[in-house]
Amino acid sequence: MTCTEFLQILDNVIDESIAAETRAEIEAHLRKCGHCEVVLDTTRKTIEIYRCHEIYELPTEVSERLHTAIMDKCRKAAR
Amino acid sequence: MSTIQSVAGQTEQHPDVALVERVRAGDLSAYDTLVRKYERQVFRIAQHITQNREDAEDVMQDAFLKAYEKLDQFQGNSKFYTWLVRIAVNESLMRLRKRRTGRMVSIDENIETDEGSVPRDFADWAPNPEQNYTQSQLADILKKTIQGLPQGFRVVFVLRDVDGLSTEETAEALGLSVPAVKSRLLRARLQLRERLSRHFKNRTPAASQPDAAPSGNGVDA
Ligand SMILES: [Zn+2]
User: Fold this and answer.
1) What range does the domain containing A31 cover?
2) What is the CA radius of gyration of chain A?
3) Are B13-99 and B129-205 equal in CATH topology?
C-alpha cells in the first residue's frame, strides 16, 4: 500500500468501515510509515476536538426565549 | 422535498415517528418535545452556514415553524431530523442570499480549491493539545479554523462528524450525492487537521499564538 492509497481510504479507516483483508495492509503500512500514522492520529483528534467542544453555545436564556417564540408561532399556525 | 428511499432496513421505529404522529393528530406538546430535542443542533448548523448569530436565531425559528407547517409533506422514509436539517440548510442559504444581495449562494460555493487535500504537516501533536489553551482561546482557534473552510466543506463536516449523521443522511439533508459528501468530508477533515496542526503540534507552546488565518478563503464578513 502506498501513502496515496492510504489517503484515499483514510475516511473509511477513521469511520471503521474497512474490510478485514484491507486492515492487515493498512496496519503494515502504518508500521513503516510515520507520516500516515500521524495523519491518521491527528485527523481523528481533529474530529474528536470538534465533537467535544461546542463552539456556538446557545445560552439557556436565549434558548428559552427562542423556544417560546417558536412554540407561539406554531400555536398561531395551528388550525 | 425529494423522497429518498431509506437505505438501511427499517427494523425498529425511530422514537420521533411517534412524536410526529402525535403532532399530526393535533398534539402541540409533542412538537414542543421535538423542538427541544433538536433546537441546539439546528442553531449550530444555521450558525455554521450564516456565520451570524442573529441570522442563526432567525433561521432556527423559521425552520421549526416551516417544519411544523409542512409536516404533512414529511414522508416517513427519512428521519425527521434529516428532513428538519434540510429545511434549516435551505433557510440558512436564503438568509445568506438576503445579506449578500445580487450574489447566488449555494452549498456548492467556494469549493473549487485543492488546498489541503494533500497533507503537508507531519508533525505529531502534543498529547493533549487542547490543554495548552484556555477555554476561550481554544474556542477561538476552533471557530477561526472551521470558518476558514469553504462553506460546502464546513457543513458536511458539521453534519457528519459533529452531528453524527450518516453519509447517506448528510447527502439527503444537503441535496448532494453520496460521492460528493464523501469527497468533501475527506477534504474538510484534512484541511481542518492541517490548520489545527499549526496550533497543536508538539512543541513548547508559544506565549502568544500568531493569528494563523490562511491566505485566501477568508469567509469572515
Ligand atoms: Zn504512508
Assistant:
1) 3-78
2) 22
3) no
